[in-house]
Amino acid sequence: MFMSKLWKLAVLVLVSITLVACDLSNFQIGDDDEDESATSSTGYFRFVNLVPASPDIELIMDENAFAQIGFAESSALTELSTGSYDLEFNQILPNTEYARFTDDDEITIKKQYIHSYILYGEDPFSPEVLTIQTDVDDLYDDEYDDGQARIQFFQASSELANVDIYLVDEGGNLLNKSVTSSLSYMGESEELDVDQGTYKIIVTESDTSSIVIAADNISLEAASSYIYSVVSYSVAGSNTLRYAVVECDEDEARLITNDAQPAYLRVNNAIANTEAIDIYFDDGSGKQLLFTHLDFGDLSAEAEITISDVDDGDSMTFYMYDFGADIDTDSALAVESFEITTDSQITIIAAGDSDEDLTLNDQVNDLSIIATHGKLIFTHAIDNEDSESLDIVVVADGANPSNYEAVVTLTYLGSEEYQIEQGDYDIYIYGESSGDLLLEYSLSNVEEGDVVNLTATESAYGGAPYDMQRVFY
Fold first, then answer.
1. 276-308: per-residue pLDDT in tens?
2. pLDDT for 412-467, tens place per residue?
3. 262: Cα within 13 Å, side-chain hemisphere
4. Fewer CB within 10 Å of terminal CB in the chain, N or C?
5. Weakest-pLDDT range from 32-36, 90-94, 440-444
6. Contact residues for 86 (Cβ-Cβ < 8 A; gap 6+)
7. What is the spatial distance between Cα 74 and Cα 181, in angstroms, rounded to a whole number?
């Protein structure tokens, strides 16, 4: 099977191309086998990437670039002449102009069908492939006025095996509800026409009331087609799988927030001149100890925070104390309130100068693992440079940084991800406006699948004024 040789996925970037944007007839490969007069007939095509541990995948159609997308993304629905098309796939790696390899397949476009070509599966080196064909002959008819949308479901998570899927009214629950579709891994549902409106999707383990996904605010428009895929993926430093629904509409795909999952939170102590810290939080029911004895350079374990308001999130207040402080009598070193939402991955950065002002700042991080390369998550926590943005240059071990541009620019307490191939690297940090070299750091043994947290701070040991915290998740 062709797809036993394919690969990875990662991001949805729709590429405007001559072959699609300009003259779709360029894609026609002869007449439709079923209709000798089909040269003027058209169908529809989209490319969907549901391989969680894959990098971006580029699709080449009839030797022309069509789209480059990542996990939980798709190309826009594109109208093509009926006929057969050759498909090739490039695996896009960071710092690499070309893919590791290309494999090929073929697809036949039929009149008035949507052909959703989906890569999926847990193994980015051997993903599965499925083409879901949706009949839209009546749906796209100018006289169609039934006020209904057409939906299908697809089970792309091997971790869940068999699931029951419910489509209920917005804000609804499972009380007295019938299963809309039961699917095993790799299973797709039949087409289902439902009234336009706003709905909720609930996914349970088969024949149970154990909810693994609850996705509200599913808006369906009349005379439109949708595919909802169940997916799961791993994140660095966590034993808890993340579950979600990916919605494909006629423009794009999106990963829908899973209200059944809590928020996931860590704290990074980036305060060089203080003792260890304790972190408390208050969700309205009083202070609760979240993490204790976080030394400088520590990144805490993951804490799961239950959210009561799944629509808007909960306002929570976080308190930072010296380690072992009496919270009833001692003053907090810093206090900040944040809106914490379901299914979010938050890192709270404790930074500043303990002799002046300390700060708690929250950052949303993508800690999903990509099997072909590593991720570096940079954070600017140098209090002495709080008004100076940092330019971060990453080069292969021993290379001259003068020959390279910054890969990331960060404001104070900002964080950003950079993807990188395995290997040894030198990292140079400059003041963006001053151009001064503030910090040089060597990072060794980055492996495929690694997620590395790198936080620039003041030094705790004297000597050079600045240092780099490093945590491999």
1. 999 999 999 999 999 999 999 999 999 999 999
2. 999 999 999 999 999 999 999 999 999 999 999 999 999 999 999 998 866 679 99
3. 8
4. N
5. 32-36
6. 61, 62, 63, 104, 105, 106
7. 23
Around 146, how many Cα atoms within 13 Å sit in the side-chain half-sphere? 13
Amino acid at 161: A
Token couple for 234? 């791993």
Residue type, 430: Y
Q: Is residue 151 within 8 Å of 228, Cβ to Cβ?
A: yes
* Paired tokens of 456: 């620039």
Nearest-angstrom CA–CA distance, 454 and 437: 17
Write the secondary structure of the chain as one string of H (helix), E (strand) and C (coil). Answer: CHHHHCCCCCCCECCCCHHHHHCHHHHCCCCECCECCHHHCEEEEEEEEECCCCCCEEEEECCEEEEEECCCEECCCEEEECEEEEEEEEECCCCCCCCCCEEEEEEEECCCEEEEEEEECCCCCCCEEEEEEEECCCCCCCCCCCCEEEEEEEECCCCCCCEEEEEEECCCCCCCCCCCEEECCCCECCCEEEECEEEEEEEEECCCCCEEEEEEEEEECCCCEEEEEEEEECECCCCCCEEEEEEECCCCEEEECCCCCCEEEEEEECCCCCCCEEEEEECCCCEEEEEEEECCCCECCCEEECCCCCCCCEEEEEEEEECCCCCCCCCCCEEEEEEECCCCEEEEEEEECCCCCEEEEEEECCCECCCCCEEEEEEECCHHHCCCCEEEEEEECCCCHHHCCCCEEECCCCEEEEEECCEEEEEEEEECCCCCEEEEEEEEEECCCCEEEEEEEECCCCCCCEEEEEEEC
pLDDT, one tens digit per residue, over 70-88 is 999 999 999 999 999 999 9
Six-digit token string for 442: 């060597």
* Neighbouring residues of 249: CB distance < 8 A, sequence distance ≥ 6: 224, 225, 226
Q: Give the predicted TM-score (pTM) of the model.
A: 0.87
Pairing relationship of beta strands 466-472 and 437-446 according to DSSP bridges: unpaired
Position of tokens 């309130």? 337
Sheet holding 408-410, edge to edge: 408-410, 390-396, 423-431, 437-446
Q: Which amino acid, residue 381? A: A
If you count them, how many residues does the chain have? 473
The amino acid at 325: A
